[in-house]
Amino acid sequence: MTGSAGDPAGRPIRAARSLGDHPIAVLLGGPSAEHDVSVVSGMAVADALEDAGHPVERLLIDLDGAWWRLPPGLRGAPEPKAAWDDPAAVGAGGPEAVARAVERLAAATPRPVVFVALHGPFGEDGTVQAILEAAGLAYTGSGVTASAIGMDKAVFKRLARGLGLPVVDWREVRADRWRRDPPGVLAELEAFAAGAGDSRLMVKPARLGSSVGMTLAHGPAERAAAIEAALVHDNLVLAEAYLAGARDLEVSVLGNDPAELELYGPGEIVAGHEFYDYEAKYMPGLSESSPAAEVDPATRATILKIARDAYRAIGAEGFARVDFLVQGGAVYLSEINTIPGFTPISLFPVMTAAGGYTFASVVERIVELAVERQAATVRRRLRPEDLPR
Fold it and tell me: Is the model's pTM score more than 0.85?
């Protein structure tokens, strides 16, 4: 549905279709290294939904995995970030174990739609999705399988390469192998870098985002420390070939039906550091971004096609951001983020403005897609006579 009003650029503003006053529970925080980013995203989402007239409950998950009910009227992100490390100090109710918290949501009438604004392990890797699925709750974003594939960069790259999608070459380092044979691992990485023609390698945890634990190792002397830094967060590390001078481009995707996806972008990030690390991502003013990258029509078409193919390949639903590296005329699929950020500097909601979305209407659309998917899900309660006995 398109609203009658328009934004300053003359685009129609999307209006919510069918949510009415349906309650929404926003999950934020989580027991991952991306906890602080998730709090900012989740509060921005909750505030926007509340301003649009929806009843919203904000549920903060702490670093131990306990769930807390933030008090009504608490808005905006904490400043400083540590202000909510003790949720009780800001009047939050709890703590609740995950089973009790989800049981309470499932027992509510009407049941809320759960907006999952969690980043990283537990929230983005299929774990919380499986919990909500088992409780029969509608939730935003991709399901269990797509979330797990999208979170695991190694699995995603293997799948993409198998489908013929262009990815940057990489090697995988497992923690047990590194502990047994560091010289052997380093020798393999040296041969890999030599074959790639550049001694620099991007070293990162396989199952984490926001560039946490990620290092640009400039040469052999820096690789061991880079591996150790990544292993703090995961037991699997990726070492990717470095693409000198590559541009960071992103595409926003909305939709459940693979045949009716909305794609926006590509946008572009110009990192304020040597690469797009955690500080460059989240310190205001350090990096620059544009929702409309300057690319020729053929390159844009290629990027959008690959984004669509990647989204379909993992079975993504709801929304995602697909990231690319572009070096000269070559386009490389970097990763897919099934719960992209909604921070003040996140490109995902900004790029969707090309489709007439405001920040509030795009988060409403994401909730609508969760409701639509839940309604289309076949749920049959079996009886003893239904079993193949």
Answer: yes
What's residue 14's pLDDT?
59
- Nearest CA to 363 out of 41, 145, 75 is that of 41
At 56, which amino acid appears?
V
The domain at 170-241 falls in which architecture?
A: 2-Layer Sandwich (3.30)
Rounded-to-integer distance, Cα 294 and Cα 267, Å: 9
Measured CA to CA, the distance from residue 254 to residue 257 in angstroms comes to 9
pLDDT, average across residues 152-174? 97
- Give the start-to-end residue ranges of the domains of the chain: 2-141, 151-164+244-338, 170-241
How far the first Cα of the chain sits from its last, in Å, is 49
Note the pLDDT tens digit of each residue in 10-55.
Answer: 445 555 556 778 899 999 999 999 999 999 999 999 999 999 999 9
Which are the contacts of 20, defined by CB distance < 8 A and separation ≥ 6?
A: none
Architecture category of domain 2-141 in CATH: 3-Layer(aba) Sandwich (3.40)
- What is the dotted CATH code of the domain comprising 151-164+244-338? 3.30.470.20
